[in-house]
Amino acid sequence: MYLSICLNKKTYYICPDIMDKITCLRVFADQAQIMACKDKIEANAKSFALLGRVLELAGNENRLKILYLLEEEGELCPCDMSDILEMSIPAVSQHLRKLKDGNIIEARRAGQTIYYSLKEEHMKILKPFFKHINTQNITTKTI
Predict the structure, then answer these.
(1) pLDDT tens track of the chain, all 143 residues?
(2) pLDDT of residue 9
(3) In this structure, are residues 122 and 104 in contact, taking their beta carbons and an 8 Å threshold?
(4) Which distant-in-sequence residues (6+ apart) come within 8 Å of 92 by Cβ?
(5) What pLDDT shows up at residue 8?
(6) Which of 108, 110, 133, 111 is nearest to 119 (CA)?
(7) Any idea where the domains of the chain sit in the sequence?
(8) What architecture is the 57-142 domain classified under in CATH?
(9) What is the DSSP string of the chain?
(10) pLDDT at residue 4 in the model
(11) What is the distance, to the nearest Å, from the Cα of residue 72 to the centroid of all Cα atoms in its chain?
């Protein structure tokens, strides 16, 4: 048995078995809008890739905390991060390696100590997230 649906005086017949799989019924597709959106996606492909990479790495709570600390403090060594986050130095180093391999942070050596900092181009991306975190912290304290 088929169900019929009337849209703009056109009748469409849909089998009930596939009806729950249909997510969109449209009579008219705005081709200009579709093409404009495709152009926007294509024009911003590099930005999507960059942001996706940053968010993928920042999606881990410990790495997000590390990025937050680097944004707040400018630079830190793994020992300081270990003390702050109450994590082992090897665990912190593993997260730092992933962030460095992802080209999100950079390192500088001063004697035997390595200091890590957030790359400037990623500060622009992450700053709104950290601002939100700081705002939530202030809101929580006042309640």
Answers:
(1) 344 444 544 555 555 555 556 566 667 788 898 899 899 999 988 888 888 888 888 888 999 999 989 988 999 999 999 999 999 999 999 999 999 998 899 999 999 999 999 998 877 777 777 888 888 766 555 54
(2) 47
(3) yes
(4) 66, 78, 81, 82, 85
(5) 47
(6) 108
(7) 57-142
(8) Orthogonal Bundle (1.10)
(9) --EEEEETTEEEEE-HHHHTT-----S---HHHHHHHHHHHHHTHHHHHHHHHHHHHHTSHHHHHHHHHHHHHSEE-HHHHHHHHT--HHHHHHHHHHHHHTTSEEEEEETTEEEEEE-HHHHHHHHHHHHHHHHHHHHHHH-
(10) 44
(11) 19
CA distances from 131 to 43, 72, 109, 121 (A): 28, 10, 29, 17
What's at 87, amino acid-wise?
M
The dihedral sign for the CA sequence 49, 53, 59, 64: negative
Joined tokens for residue 65: 């905390």
